[in-house]
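cache lookup: miss for this entity combination. No prior model stored, computing from scratch. Input as submitted by user K.M.:
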Amino acid sequence: MKKDLRFIVIGAGMAGMLAAIRLRAEGYRNVTVLEKGPQVGGTWRENRYLGLYCDVPAHDYTYSFAPNPEWSGYLAPGAEIQQYFEDIAERYALTQIIRFHTEVVSCTHGIGGWTVCTRAGDTVEADVIIAATGVLHHPRMPEIPDLDTFEGPKFHSARWPDTIDLAGQRVGVIGNGSTGVQLVTALAGVARQVSHFQRSPQWIMPLPNFPYTDKERQAFRENPALIEAVRKDPNLVQAVHRFTTAIANRDSAEMAELEAFLADYFNQSIADPMLRERLRPTYRAACKRLIFSATYYAVVQRPDVAIVTDRIDRVTPQGVLTCDGIQHELEVLILATGFHADRYVRPIAIRGRHGIALDTVWAQRPHAYLAISIPEFPNFFLLNGPGAPVGNFSLIDVAERQWTYIAQLIAQVSTGACREIAPTQTALAAYESRRIAAAQQTIFGSGCTSWYLDATGIPNTWPWDYATFAQAMTAPNLEDFNLQS
Ligand code: NAP
């Protein structure tokens, strides 16, 4: 085993930390993580908006090897998740191998492997690169006329100001994805008035949260099997299975069941028929990522919360003018308008064999064999890359399963079976054509807009159910790879 392979992990978020921990556990000594920010945590470091929590059950959104008996409730708030990652960084001594404030600007493949350049002008040589740069980290500002004329504080949800007091203010929130819904729910009763600007209605799944008592936490501490029981709760496992079966096959019985449930919940939750029609989605449930909230429908029926469904005409110095001529007076404007989700490892300039640019390879859409590796970019592996599973389940589990697969590719190099490994063009082409055909049949491709769709309108997601993903990640088929000595 060559344990002196040089690894560069890009990003110290959930996936990059996982890679670093796993590599060191596997005995590799030369592992460096390059992180552009000042701290670990990735999306949980970047997002600090009011009301932020993870709508995936906390014990499920936890590394399998580092259970956390201290979660405060079934769903954990963002700050607590960030603390978990900071604690993990300490516990696994990751801070010794992470270079913070180190933005990677390019990775170039050459005869001796990869050369990684940083914004500060340093270069680092690597045999293997793990791109763990996340998906949702380039805020998307809305193209709304006169946005810059607003006189009060105005910011994207992922650029939350350190000091902002929203108590007693008239606050506008544009966007009603998972972020906007969590924000508005938390703002109700804090702000004087909340105006929630909704361009498209959302389907909402009522997922109740509940706190863990001190006694329960003590029990988790004393008996880790109880945590495992929460993670392996047959109801949760079944729910993920049924959900991924439904999204993979929009004509399935599971999808029909989900749609009926959500329609019932919707119809029963909104008392005013006029408000109900304004909130009624005109596309199929789960086409956009489902919003998980047991409280949003109650919140939008409060007198201090207004749902604004008329199109936004423009922003004015004092608020937002809608096309019906109404000026919505605001003191603070929050843009929960999502992210450029097609960037992945970019804007880092990646050049593979013969100088080929990743931007060129990805000109039509970002893609990778099994979401992990790309021909002509040897020893370069993506975690949570294009075409990986996304939805209402744990991305930690996704990354851990991907690691199982990547570790076996790396082992080919470290055992000397080859110096470099990358998938064949034939394997990628066959895989992508199967994936695209299946993706068009998923619920994500049933006729709505969302960040799941690529520039050509095809879902850039794992299109099969979760069991198929789990199976695909158990072991690589080496016939699909070029092993170069
Ligand atoms: P998003 O789902 O992309 O939603 C963006 C929202 O902004 C949509 O409602 C969109 O309307 C609206 N919008 C965009 N441009 C607009 C414009 N010009 N005028 C009016 N409205 C505009 O973004 P997000 O809510 O930040 O969520 C992104 C993802 O982050 C989620 O899907 C999820 O994967 C993740 N997330 C997870 C959690 C969690 O608890 N696990 C929490 C928050 C976020 P349209 O629908 O009409 O385009």
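stored under new cache key. The pocket of NAP is lined by residues 54-56, 136, 142-144, 174-180, 182, 197, 199-200, 289, 312, 336-338, 449, 451 (CB under 6 Å).
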